[in-house]
Structure formats: C-alpha cells, structure tokens
Specification:
Chain lengths: 202, 357
C-alpha cells in the first residue's frame, strides 16, 4: 500500500538523485512501485508477459534517458501514465479502448455462481466481501481502472484524466458511472432473490 | 459534516481512506468518535470501508511474487547495460569510454590480486556513479571489514556486497546490502542509520546487529546484538496486520521476514549471549538457590522474557552460575536438572514443569 500524500516529497528526493545517475535511488523507486504498477498493469491486460515487458521497457527507458528527465511533480503519476501508454502501445491500436481486463464472460458469470452457496454457509461480512469482489470484477475495464486510480492510488481527477487520456469531466463521469454500476449490480443480485444487495451496498 | 455523508462522500474523503487503508491509533480514535456521535452512519461507514478493503485486496491479489520482482529488476539492469543509447557524434566520449575501460581492466587486475574487489564503475551494471558511491564486493572467503564514512563498521560476509554514499547525506545514513553483514553503528540519534536489504529496511540510531539477505534465500533475517532496532518492510502495507509492518527488536531478538508473504515473525537468535557486562555476570552465582531467582537472573542476563509459574518452581533449588554458556545451553541444563521442558514461542521462553517436592 502506498502512503497517501506524504510520500510524494520522498519520491521527488529519490527521483532527483536518480536523475543524477544514482542506481540506488533508481532501485528504490523500482522497489517502491513495481508491485502496484504490476497489479495495475494486470488490470489493463491479463497477460502477465505483456505487463512484465512493459514494466521492463519502462524502467529501462527511464534509466537510459535519466539525464534528460524533468523534475517530476508526482513520480507516481508519471510511472502510472507511462506504464499505461506502454501497455496500450504494445497492443494493436484498435484494441486500445475495447480491451477489457476481464473477458466479457466475467460480466455475468461470477455473481451468481458462488453467492448462493455462500449465503448458507458464510457469515454476513464474508458474504459482503465476496459479493463486492464479484461486482468489482464485473465492472467494465475502464470503470474498474478509474475506481482503482481514484480510491486505491488516490490520484486526483485531473491526474486520472491525464493517465487515462480523457477529460477531467470524463474522469468524474466514469467514477460516478462505476459507482452507479456497482449499485445496479447490487440490485440485480437483489432481484434474483438474493436479498442482501441493497442492504449491503448503498 | 459527517452526519449527512453518503457512502460516496466517505469514499471521496481522503482522511477516511487513509484511516481504512493505513489506519493509525489516532485515526481509530477519531473515527470511533464519529461513530459514537452519528450512530446512524454506522452502516454507511461499514459499506465504504468494505468497498475500500475489497478494492485493496483485489489490487494485492495481482502483486507479483518477490522472485518476479527480483528477476525483473535484473533484466532491467542488464538491458540498461547492454544497449546504452550512445550519441553518434562524439569522438571524445569514445575516448572517455576507452580510458574508463582501461582503468577498469587495470583496477580489476589490481584488486583481484588482493582477492577483494572494491569497485564502482566496473560493477556488472555499470550503473553506479563512482564519484558518489562506494561499492564493496566481498569475493574472498573471509569476512571483510568495511569502515563506513561515519565511523561505523560493517563486517561483510563472503559473497556479499554493500554500497553506500561516500559522504552520507545530511539527514540519514543509508547503506544497501546484498547478502549478509554484521553492523556496529556509531551512535548518532540525529541521523538514523538505515540498512536497505531486499524488501526490508532496518533502522537504528546506534547499535550492533546482523542482517542476512541473500537473494536466493526465502527469508531475510535481522539479528540484534545490542541496542534497539526497528525493522520494517520497505514497501509498507499498513492496513493488513501491524505485525507485518515492522517490529522493534531488542538484544538477542531476531526478525524473520518471509519474502513470499511479506510477513515478519519475531524470535530469538540461535545463540543468545549475555547482554550485561562481564563483571555483573560474575555476580550471578547461585548456591542452593530457588529456581525463580535463577530464572530472573537469566532474564536480566539475556534480555529475554521467561514465562513460568513462580510458586510451583519455588521448591526447586539449584547451584549454578551463568557464565560461559549461551541461553539455550543454560536452559537445557536447568530443565534437565528439575525434569522440566521449555519451548520458544515468538521471543519468549515458556517453561513447563510439575515443580519439585
């Protein structure tokens, strides 16, 4: 888990040391972000070799061009945006906006399969988590991506817009829409006779 | 304002997210107050909390393994080295490169003669700036003493390497370790001393301790000889379990960090040694003394916690001294004498006995 907010300053410090050619600072940045970047990459593209290659390329490029790099206001932002571009560039261009990180099938499948049996055996809290999890994976790729950037990575709407290559209003809309989708999914589950939906989420 | 918050509003609230994902005790107190003041918000808060934690779990589910992280870094370093972007124009840079290589070859020859390679620019990556950094690689079979810029000392084990700034920074003393080393750190409370080793960081103000972090090992170990040592995961993930986040170690304690699940456990070092001065130790000589008295002396001598039933053991009497043995040898002898057993749980020793008649 990244440290919200307070860490940006430390990042900048290491970023500047890295630009001057210190490998340890480079390694520090790598160690700090490789895990969340990888996880984020896997949300954009489920093929781990694509994600690994993109991360490798990105960091290799960073090292090679270090002397030309500018001071970064937010290192985290810079890395997330670069990685997303790398991954999308490695795909065919027409895939860029259609590539879901979960196959279409996921959209319907997981909600129903597990939940019913869970109700009988699991405690309420476990059930909530299980449902949420399946709702989250049900979300269209870009909506999930936006949620993740906003609520897990704590990016501002402006930053999300720049990372996802959309307008700031677009970013707000996506977040609103994804929360709405989550609510709707909760309702669907509800109508199917699984009475937890409304009670649990919103 | 919180009384009218919706789930969305809570999610948008940075302070709320911070509490859920990396909550500190003071945050807990703050939000407990909110709950007390606005009990009708309990469900809403619980929903928002659940949402964040689930998101968090989903993100972590896709974390790469530590082996992947290491491997990927090696590939990056190799790549960066293999195909550097060279400017096309420059004769002078060719000359610089040539003379640097010559220097490397010469210095390589010179240092390998001594069986110790003290290099910077010629490391496998070529990425380290020799003007600022010192890199020490111990290719010999013996322990290599490295004197650090602040007067601290590192005893570097074979197949290990250490790099650090030639002049430590103003605010911290920071060294990077691959492999194993024993550190004796000069006291300087104003300037913490950090050992970065793989995924963990060990932080001290002035003390002595050992860090073992070989790439191929599944566990990273930190063993404390004197002083207090803080160990934590460099990529801290606070929301899960405070034990995962880090430990404060006292002498004779050891932290084991498992790379695969990024988890710390506290235990004792293999051979705990006395932490009190020799003169004080000599006073611990017992003649037909009740066992609890001896055990309390052991606690003090090794800085460990023993758990035993004082009343039950007060009838057991022994003649012994505390010199010349490490803790576990001592415990073996004592327990055998009174027909008891002991086991190590975390960093505590629990003694089981039926007492003496």
């Amino acid at each position: 888990m990244k440290d919200i907010g307070a860490s940006d300053q430390e990042d900048r410090l290491y970023w500047n040391r890295f630009r001057k050619g210190e490998e340890v600072a480079f390694s520090w940045i790598y160690q700090r972000y490789v895990r969340v970047l990888y996880s984020y990459g896997m949300k954009i593209n489920r093929d781990s070799s694509v994600v690994e290659d993109a991360i490798q390329d990105m960091f290799t490029d960073l090292w090679r061009t270090r002397s030309q790099l500018a001071e970064a206001k937010s290192v985290r932002f810079y890395l997330f945006r670069s990685l997303r571009r790398k991954i999308h560039r490695s795909l065919r261009p027409e895939d860029e906006y259609t590539q879901p990180f979960n196959p279409e099938a996921d959209y319907k499948q997981p909600v129903l399969a597990s939940v019913e049996s869970d109700i009988i055996s699991e405690e309420e809290i476990t059930l909530q988590t299980a449902q949420l999890k399946s709702w989250l994976t049900c979300l269209p790729a870009r909506q999930y991506e936006a949620l993740l950037l906003r609520y897990y990575q704590d990016f501002s709407y402006a930053e999300i817009a720049a990372i996802m290559n959309i307008s700031e209003q677009g970013a707000r809309n996506i977040i609103q829409k994804s929360l709405h989708t989550l609510r709707r999914l909760a309702l669907v589950v509800c109508f199917l006779g699984i009475g937890w939906g409304l009670k649990i989420f919103f | 304002m919180y009384q009218n918050y919706t789930t969305d509003d809570f999610l948008q609230d940075t302070a709320f997210r911070k509490w859920v994902l990396q909550g500190t005790p003071s945050d807990d107190a703050f939000w407990a107050d909110i709950l007390r003041n606005f009990p009708h918000q309990r469900d809403t808060i619980q929903q928002a909390r659940e949402f964040l934690l689930t998101l968090h779990e989903q993100v972590e589910a896709d974390f790469p393994s530590e082996q992947q992280v290491d491997l990927l870094y090696k590939r990056i370093v190799e790549n960066a080295h293999e195909a550097p972007v060279r400017p096309l124009y420059s004769w002078s840079s060719w000359w610089v490169a040539a003379s640097v290589s010559l220097l490397i070859v010469l210095s390589g020859w010179w240092f390998t003669q001594k069986n110790i390679v003290r290099i910077a620019k010629s490391d496998s990556t070529g990425m380290l700036d020799s003007r600022l950094f010192e890199q020490v690689v111990n290719t010999s079979a013996a322990v290599l003493i490295v004197n650090l810029p602040d007067g601290s000392q590192a005893s570097l084990e074979p197949r290990s390497q250490l790099h650090y700034r030639k002049a430590f920074a103003d605010t911290i003393r920071e060294v990077f370790l691959v492999g194993e080393a024993f550190f004796e750190v000069q006291k300087n409370p104003a300037k913490p001393f950090l050992v970065r080793a793989n995924a963990i960081t060990t932080r001290v103000l002035g003390t002595s301790f050992r860090v073992s972090a070989y790439d191929q090992d599944q566990q990273i170990k930190v063993m404390v000889k004197t002083g207090r040592v803080a160990v934590f995961s460099t990529q801290s993930r606070k929301y899960t379990d405070p034990e995962q986040d880090g430990l404060i170690l006292t002498p004779n304690q050891q932290a084991d960090f498992t790379k695969t699940d990024a988890h710390f456990t506290r235990t004792l070092v293999d051979k705990p040694i006395p932490i009190i001065p020799q003169t004080e130790l000599q006073q611990f000589s017992f003649r037909n003394a009740p066992l609890p008295e001896i055990l309390q002396a052991i606690e003090k001598t090794y800085g460990v916690e023993l758990i035993f039933d004082e009343q039950q053991l007060s009838n057991c009497r022994l003649t012994t001294s505390l010199e010349n043995e490490n803790l576990f040898e001592k415990m073996d002898v004592l327990c055998e004498a009174i027909g008891a057993t002991y086991k190590l749980v975390d960093a505590q020793i629990i003694i089981k006995s039926k007492g003496c008649d």
